[in-house]
Structure formats: C-alpha cells, structure tokens
Amino acid sequence: MSALVLQSLVAGRAGFRLPALDLTARSGEVVALIGPNGAGKTTLMKTLAGLIPPVSGRLDRPGAAAYLPPPGAVSAGFSALHLTALGRAGRRRWSPGLAAEDIEAARAALTRLDIADLADRPFDRLSSGQQQLVLIARLFVQDAPVCLLDEPLALLDPAHAQAVETAVRTLAREGRIVLASSHHLPFAARADRVLAIGPDQIEAAAPAQALAPDRVRALFGVEVSGCPCCGQALG
C-alpha cells in the first residue's frame, strides 16, 4: 500500500519552524489540517508538495504531489476546459501542446463534477466555488498519488462547499492520499484523521479526539459546546 511517510519532519521558513512531525498517511485517506491563522498549515503543505525544502527529518512520498493553493491564488484567462487539461502537461514533456486525449480527459473530469457547462467559460470569470471545482477536476486528470489542498472550502457558499467536499472524498476513494487544510471544523469532523497544528503543538488524532472541546479550546482559544459536525451537545 502506498503511503506518505514523515519521520521527525520539521517544516519551516525564515524565522519560523513547526515542531517535528511523525505521520503516515495511506492511500484512500483524507487528513484534515486544522489550526489558527499563522500556525504553519501552508508552510507544511508546501513542504509536503516539495515547494519548500524540509528543515530536517525525512519525507517519503509514493510519487509526485499535486498542490492546490487557496482560493484566489490561481488567475488565468484560459477556458475551464483548457486549464483542467493542463493538469496533464507533465505527461507531455517533449511536446509543446496538449493532445486530444488530454482534452477528452479534462472534459470527462468536468462532467463527473457536474460542471461540464463551464468548459468554455474563462476561468477568471468564474465564481470562487466554480474555480475550486475546476481546479479539483485538474487534480483528477493530474493523477498524482498525493493531493494537497490548501483551504479548499474558503470563500464558498454551502452548496459549493458541499460539492468540493464530495470531490475531495472522491479523490481519496480512488486511491489518492488527500491532505486538506481548513478552518471548517465540520469538514474536519468528517475526515479520517485530523492533524492539529498550533504554536507549540502538532499532533494527528481521530476526529472525535482532535475536536474534543478541550482540544479546540487549547488550539483556537474558543469554547465549543456542540459537536463540530452536527451541533449535538457534547458530554
């Protein structure tokens, strides 16, 4: 079974370091990253993607990682279909253009996410939710074994958030390892595991444990009286 393995991995950038992390994430698993703003979630994601070198420790990936930046980070005048098809560009290292099968794969990915009607529309004219779904369609055609999504639910209305979460789960169901950062605790509650990142802590646990009221209080400094997923009273 393919796995993403971190051994005493320290991620960081100038003047900032996260605590060492040991983690094994396996194919088909969704790991939600939670933590306050500035805690280092994006730094860790970029390190796992290979965009920032680790400060120390070991990082083993089963293959290439696909990184989806936060909403609004990608702006392009390409059509949604063309931008999706560019996810297959890595397969065309000796060719300057996209092949017919790349376009067909992109159209199929848009169709499976129920956004085929966006195919010919300019990406930069789409709403935040539509853009996120197009970029996730690009992950489908990219076919990387590790998918890293940075705040995929940010700025989305409930309908688009639900569609994006369904797409994230589909990525995992097809055998990919998915790590997604989010401030949306109900999403984290439905993940397979939660990786909590705070100023002096980094720990992976089952959602029920990671999102217990005392853990959320310590991480965010706020009180939670109900289950993050359904709102039912705890305790």
Overview of this structure, please?
The chain is an alpha/beta fold and 235 residues long. It contains eight helices and eleven strands. The chain has a six-stranded mixed sheet, sandwiched between helices. Strands 4-1-6 form a three-stranded antiparallel sheet, with no helix packed on it. The chain has a two-stranded antiparallel sheet with strand order 2-3. Strand 2 and strand 3 form a beta hairpin. The longest helix has 16 residues.
Largest sheet: 6 strands, mixed
Radius of gyration: 18 Å
On the 0 to 100 scale, the average pLDDT is 90
The span between the termini is: 38 Å
Q: Strand share of the residues?
A: 15-25%
Lateral strand order in the biggest sheet: 7-8-9-5-10-11
Apparent shape: globular
**What are the segments in which pLDDT stays under 50 over at least 5 consecutive residues?**
none
Structural class: alpha/beta
The helical percent reads 25-40%
DSSP helical segment count: 8
N-to-C order of helices and strands: EEEEEHEEHHHEHEHEEHH
Please tally the β strands and state the result. Answer: 11
Summarize the structure.
With 235 residues, the chain is an alpha/beta fold. The protein contains eight helices and eleven strands.
Map the helices and strands.
Layout: E1 3-10, E2 12-13, E3 16-17, E4 21-26, E5 30-34, H1 41-49, E6 56-60, E7 65-68, H2 80-85, H3 100-112, H4 128-142, E8 146-150, H5 158-173, E9 177-181, H6 185-189, E10 193-198, E11 201-205, H7 207-210, H8 213-220
Parallel strand pairs: 5-9, 5-10, 7-8, 8-9
Antiparallel strand pairs: 1-4, 1-6, 2-3, 10-11
Helix pairs in contact: 3-4, 4-5
